Amino acid sequence: MDHDDSTDRLRCLVTGATGYIGGRLVPELLAAGHRVRCLARSPEKLRDHPWADEAEVVRGDVTDADSVARAMRDVDVAYYLVHALGSGKDFEDTDRRAAGVFAERAKAAGVRRIVYLGGLTPSGVPADRLSPHLRSRAEVGRILLASGVPTAVLRAAVIIGSGSASFEMLRYLTERLPVMVTPSWVRTRIQPIAVRDVLRLLVGSAGLPGDVNRAFDIGGPDILTYRDMMVRYARVAGLPRRLIVAVPVLTPGLSSHWVGLVTPVPASIARPLTESLRHEVVCREHDIARYLPDPPGHPLGFDQAVRLALRRVREARVTTRWSSAAVPGAPSDPLPTDPDWAGGSLYTDRREAVVDAPAHELWRVIEGVGGEHGWYSFPLAWSLRGWLDRMVGGVGLRRGRRDAERLRAGDSLDFWRVEEIERGHLLRLRAEMRLPGLAWLEMCAEPAGGGRSRYRQRALFHPRGLLGHAYWWSVSPFHAVVFGGMARNIARAAARQGPDVAR
Question: What are the angstrom distances between the C-alpha of 387 and each of 40, 140, 409?
Fold first, then answer.
């Protein structure tokens, strides 16, 4: 059955546009000729995306009925791409409440269709035996299907694409461990799907007939165990064959910490992913093809999906990553306005240096910090801080960068997030490591005349309680080495016109 061709030039609302799938869906919808409005808690995170000038961005939150109502005005199709993944023990309540608000406001606004990307649930497994993550995603699907608005729920298992959490977990486990003692879930059968096929079906779902209100299982042509996926990844990536030994003693909690230590994916995100692999997740139908026929060569096979993802990684063309969305539990407060901020103590460490290079050369070094370039001072101290963060469930240093040269607002950068960027002048990073307070790091490039520039650096910390004050004073003796060395080495690197020489 063909989809409805009368739906050209739809107005589409996309929630979760700062996340992995949402950030890729927006340009696909625009390319298909649709108008796009994004609902985002922090619209500034979207301003540097290549498509930012083509889409409307409104501020709001899916748990806030008024902001959702405003965003729904004149909308034809509403995409629900948000999950309270690992945001705390009450995340199922948050998901339930947000889905209810979204459903009610879509109905009241006369939205013609809701499209939701959920998780593929195992056949015959009672809800109380599902992982909390899968159980919540299934419940959200049911709430949206009962909204009175025709809804398409697309249920996917593991999504294979450059930057996806599932792909990063698979990639790093396979590349870093030639010999693995693994949890028993590596024997579980899975039906992965390429991110390109997920996006194709999400875009196509906007034009489904009005009487379609149901869930669809979506997957690629291959059904594999996780062990098979690691073996085949190694083959596609040109790695030696991996030796994989499954043992039953690793609980979901232990295996999530194991994944967190080996891969850039923190335990808070690894746990729901690994818990979801306890049961077989294989498609029971392919009915979506009745409405959206598979084009030649699709759905992509596992090997081809890996090949395409690796090519994007190697060519540094990863448009969004799993870390594009804010890490659950990380601070989200913007930098307090100063100097007359009245919110309490704000500790500051200031450094500056005159640089024997023009401001644009200094900026090139500033924008290149982190990831493979490092942090220009005491690498052991940065590595130790990253490991300590991982040990307490934080993100650590290994998230790296989305792009080796350019940053944009909202990008994750090791255990920081880009809160503000004024290209050529200011980079402000907000810490997402586990801290007893809020922390920021600012780096500025200013012209100083005569072909020289001035580098200004501020580290700021807003302590939370007595522990926060104690933390600042315990680490302040090391600031001269860490922050002072950083300022000196960034200045030297700019003077030498190369961001790698002063690491």
Answer: 32, 35, 26
